[in-house]
Write a structure and sequence with these properties.
Length: 274
């Protein structure tokens, strides 16, 4: 019949109008190290894998991936990776003990610098933190870009702590393996805030990287928890810049009606607030 628009076209128009108003978040991974970094991730809370293909970032290179809605999990960098005599993929630091370039459900092996994210739907804040409580293997900087509310501050650690880490036997930058006593691991009888104390590494790290999460019962008085709404993110390994600065959009106040809730990201083994 003349003048009648097919139903399929109406549905398509509605879909296009709806999609145009949806903001798809992205994550850029950038390598400013002098060596290749193999990016790794583990999802939490039943969210889908962030990426399944191996991401080997050559020096000076970067890649951008899409972020699933409401994604939660950890991201870190692995260094000096190779295949051993029996064909297992292993890394000197950050190895996930999966035997392959993909970590799947395997967890990170300390020492490792980690970024944790709890991404949220529109109307809620994303929360993110850089952690050194399982040790330090790479400088890391997380920068939100284009956020519309929240702190929207860069965070991480780019100070030279590698000299401190490498000045003593292997493990110094892993607070559990580098120092004796389960109180530094905050395990067993040392899980309570009054018994879980910072290690010498944590105390040193606090002076170098005050914006990072430093040990399992970090008291939260330091500014290591950050939030931002509707933002893209950039993670830089071995960044040639400073931390604690405003993002490119500047620090802005959260919009009215933004909701928060407390969550626990089990795969990363420490609490954040979102």
């Amino acid at each position: 019949m003349a003048g009648v628009v097919p139903l399929s076209l109406l549905v398509l128009n509605v879909f296009l109008c709806f999609s145009a108003g949806v903001h798809s978040k992205t994550l850029e991974l950038s390598n400013e190290c002098g060596h290749t970094v193999w990016a790794a991730t583990v999802s939490a809370g039943g969210t889908p894998p962030l990426f399944t293909d191996a991401l080997a970032l050559l020096p000076g290179k970067s890649t951008t991936i899409s972020l699933p809605a409401s994604w939660s999990g950890c991201i870190w960098g692995r260094t000096f990776c190779t295949y051993d005599a029996i064909g297992r993929f292993t890394c000197a630091t950050g190895d996930c003990d999966s035997g392959s370039q993909e970590c799947a459900c395997a967890s990170e092996q300390p020492p490792v610098t980690m970024a944790e994210f709890k991404l949220s739907d529109p109307g809620y804040l994303d929360f993110y933190v850089v952690s050194a409580w399982r040790g330090y293997n790479l400088g890391m900087l997380v920068v939100p870009h284009g956020g519309s509310g929240g702190d929207c501050m860069a965070t991480g650690c780019v100070k030279d702590v590698e000299g401190f880490c490498n000045s003593e036997p292997s493990g110094r930058c892993n607070p559990c393996f580098g120092y004796s006593g389960t109180n530094y691991c905050c395990s067993g009888a040392y899980t309570r805030p009054d018994t879980c104390k910072p290690s010498p590494f944590s105390q040193y790290f606090k002076s170098k990287c005050p914006w990072a999460y430093r040990y399992a019962n970090d008291d939260g008085k330091s500014t290591w928890k950050f939030d931002c709404a509707s933002s893209d993110y950039i993670i830089t390994f071995c960044p040639h810049t400073s931390t604690g600065q405003e993002s490119s959009t500047g620090a802005v106040s959260g919009p009215s009606g933004v909701k928060t809730k407390k969550v626990w990201i089990k795969s990363c083994q420490y609490p954040t607030y979102s």
